[in-house]
Amino acid sequence: MRFRTRAIHVGNERDPQTGAVVRPIHLAATYIQPGAGEWGEFDYARSGNPTRAAVEATLASLESGAGALAFSSGMAAIHCATMLLEPGDHVLAGTDIYGGTYRLLHRILDSAGIGVTLAPSTDLEAFEAAARPETKLIWVESPGNPLMSITDLAACAELAHRRGAMLGVDSTFATPVLTRPLELGADIVMHSATKYLGGHSDVLGGALVVNDRELYDRLYFIQNATGAVMGPLEAFLCSRGIKTLELRVREQCRTAARLAELLAADPRVARVLYPGLPGHPGHEIATRQMDGAFGAMLSFEVAGDFLAAKTVVESTRLFQLAVSLGAVESLIEQPAAMSHASYAPADRAAHGISDGLIRLSVGLEAFEDLRDDLGQALAKATESS
To answer: Is 266 in the active site?
Structure first.
């Protein structure tokens, strides 16, 4: 079956009891067992739930994985992956990563005795030079957040395995529609299900998909022991969102590409970061690695300072000022003050996250309306400068 067919049918088989084409939400917290010490398929909702199992089956299929686990949030999923590590181990992560991931690495893992180094994953020579003998996990995002950098995932997987480490990829921006990291050699792929998978700004969730059943078993043990599982209502909403995932993502990508070209030609804009633009440093890799489109996220810098960018993000009418991304409505934010405020200011500057940077999540509104909205907001910023 093709991708969009699997998104609709795998894990979503009709209910055998009633014939309902949409499976019911299972809210039970516990399940009757065949006998004392005899376990059925489900026993306690933390350990397994039919609604959660359905969305996990869909995700494993879409990512070509051996198994998937659905979590209460994207950060819970990343945290579970890092719990594979032990004190004395080391994590090498890219510099272009979500602010919450940065916070987890530098405020939680550090205190647990796990070393952390950030280095540019777009420069594999410099990236490998930052690895250590005790590096056990390499963590990257592609496209990166918020600079839309592109990492060569196949080359990064080879680097990780040659050094005896695992490669984990946060593929939230790409979605399995555009990039399937496990097919490129990654060991773990993570999604914030809050974003494109749910797609409607009404789900909080995360997922890990892995290429090895033994690794799945290790992660399942950690998840079951710590309890950060996706609830049944969230799992149901996520399953529903995935059914339209490919249609939404490809249409959003088309609009994002047009907006990126428009902004790149606007003299009020200092630079545009979008891998679909031929001048983007990762364009060639993205063309190879992403399936026919370059994502619906883009960032740009206005010609001015923090206040000019602040004026833009506070002046849009259709682009709503909010963190998060990947839903049907378009969002706008200023990373230095919002999604990446948890970065130390020196690290933001060192990693290229300027105060004037603006990040867009392009939704499903008409291109013309989004174009006009950005135009009037940029005009206001120019007037106030």
So the answer is: no
